[in-house]
Amino acid sequence: MNWNLDENLRNSTLRVPEQTALICEGMAITYKELDQKVECFAAGLASQGINKGDTVAVLVGNRPEFVIAFYGILRRGAVAVPINPTYTLGELEYILSDSETKAIIAHSAMEPILTAVKKRVGSLNLVVYTQPAETETSWEQFMQQSDNSGDKTSIVQDDLAVILYTSGTTGKPKGAMLSHRNLASNAEAVSELLELTNKDRMLTVLPMFHVLSLTVCLNAPIASGSTILLVPHFSPTHVVNIIQEEKATIFVGVPTMYNFMLQLEATANEFASIRVCASGGDSIPLALLQQFESKYQVSILEGYGLSEAAPVTSFNPLRGTQKPGSVGVDIPNVKNKVVDPDGREVPAGEVGELIVQGPNVMMGYLGMPEETRMTLKEGWLFTGDLAKKDEEGYIYIVDRKKDIILVGGYNVYPREVEEVLYQHPLVREAAVIGVADPAYGERVKAYVVKKEEALTEKEMIRFCSDHLAKYKLPKEVEFVAEMPRNSTGKILRRALRTTDGEKEKIEM
To answer: Is the dihedral angle over the CA atoms 470, 472, 478, 479 positive or is it negative?
Structure first.
């Protein structure tokens, strides 16, 4: 088997050339047109001296240009580096220097910051803007000047395809190196799990520079010949309107998106075309899942993944038993185990670290051999997440190892407390962290976005006392207007922690 992202696009083009591949703000592109544009873009890179193995950064939101550039880079045999366009100059400089990026595709609004970055990154020679720009090549110029008569670049499944930068708890971001085999095998598994066909219409509002959207909302539907409904920005009302207008069949989101849509005065009629929803990026609170499914009469299938696994490793089956609160079972070709600190598998029901093995597991971290050795051991990826399995192999994420709160020697898992907080009818969102305590080492602190002003800290703690042991109770509750989030809308607990009285700055 040859897992190859470029071949996936070529094969879909051969099967369904006139099928609509992309729809964005009224513009539609067929698979035949998309393939031609990708070919043209790859030739443009060749004409500018970009060769196999060179790195090219993509700083574009959910637009057709992202898809064309991403697959054009791969067709050239180069390596794509998708980056959040909102990153600061310092963050961009580090990633571009670390990856030795030679070219960037970006929106023209980024021209001022990229002009400064280009002076600092020695490897960077080419910047292409999606709109006309003052100092660099525009998208239109780039596509027109390319010669698409060049030879096809040979690509094999173990070639490096993408470098995704993930932030750790300390230090600089790490570049997870993902091969064609890693990404295409995961796209194939997702297609099989969701039963994707060319009749499906995937609503893609999660940012494609994030691994969840890249695989589930882009690579999987491309491999299946499905139609991708590109939505540049998330607005709950707009998303529901798109679902109705474009007859979307699949929606993939993170818990925050489902929470916002739950607050709308919409009905099940608006979701009539949706055959399945999927959630990832973070654990979805059980109360939120049940309320959403009841209101809109659609199932939300929860899964688990991480950038280093391209990303999906487990998923609740579309057909068969779905267990709310779990992240499902092993996906095709992938194994998940729960192990103790010595790497021994623990019995069902016991908590340990989740480790993963399969064709989706990354090649390693770019230029970080020690971090790679700590994460990849004897063919297994150590995720750093605490989990347990039931007798049927369904996985339940307990929490991140680093997020455990130690109260007087007892382990408190933030997610367990958050699940209780979400059950209160006046809580819109909640997050829990540990803060220093002179008597017990740490104590539990909750952050809450409330629906009504009348909700008090005393009421919240009393409510929790009916559901939690005393050592698990929040000792303080801070009400906030909104939660800190990453680019996909995931709540960032780390950004709620304080260092020397200052909020820690976190980017994912």
So the answer is: negative
Per residue in 167-217, pLDDT (tens digit) is 654 457 899 999 999 999 999 999 999 999 999 999 999 999 999 999 999
| 356 three-class SS | strand
DSSP string for residues in 72-87: HHHHTT-EEEE--TT-
Per-residue pLDDT tens for 154-165?
Answer: 999 999 999 999
Give every CB contact of residue 109 below 8 A, 6+ residues apart in sequence. none
Low-confidence ranges of the chain (pLDDT < 70): 1, 145-151, 167-171, 498-508
Of residues 338, 332, 336, 307, the one with CA closest to residue 318: 332
Residues paired with residue 264 on neighbouring β-strands, in sequence order: none
Q: Please, are residues 99 and 73 in contact by the beta-carbon 8 Å criterion?
A: no
- Backbone phi, psi, residue 415, to 5°: -60, -35
CA distance 430 to 81: 33
Distance CA 177, CA 364 (A): 6
* 485: DSSP letter: B
Is the torsion defined by CA of 292, 294, 295, 296 positive or negative? positive
Distances (CA, A) of 73 to 34, 153, 225, 291, 413: 14, 11, 20, 42, 42
CB-CB contact of 353 with 401 (8 Å): yes
Give CATH 3.30.300.30 domain extents, the chain: 404-503
119 close to 15: Cβ distance less than 8 angstroms: no
First to last CA, the chain: 33
Which residues lie below 8 Å from residue 395, measured CB to CB, with a gap of 6+? 304, 314, 326, 327, 328, 329, 336, 338, 354, 387, 388, 389
Q: Which of 284, 274, 277 is nearest to 324 (CA)?
A: 284
pTM of the model: 0.86
Say which CATH class 404-503 falls into: alpha beta
Contact 117, 71 (CB under 8 A): no
Fold of the domain built from segment(s) 5-178:
Rossmann fold (3.40.50)
* Of the options 3.40.50.12780, 3.30.9.10, 3.30.565.10, 3.40.50.9100, the CATH number for the domain spanning 182-400: 3.40.50.12780
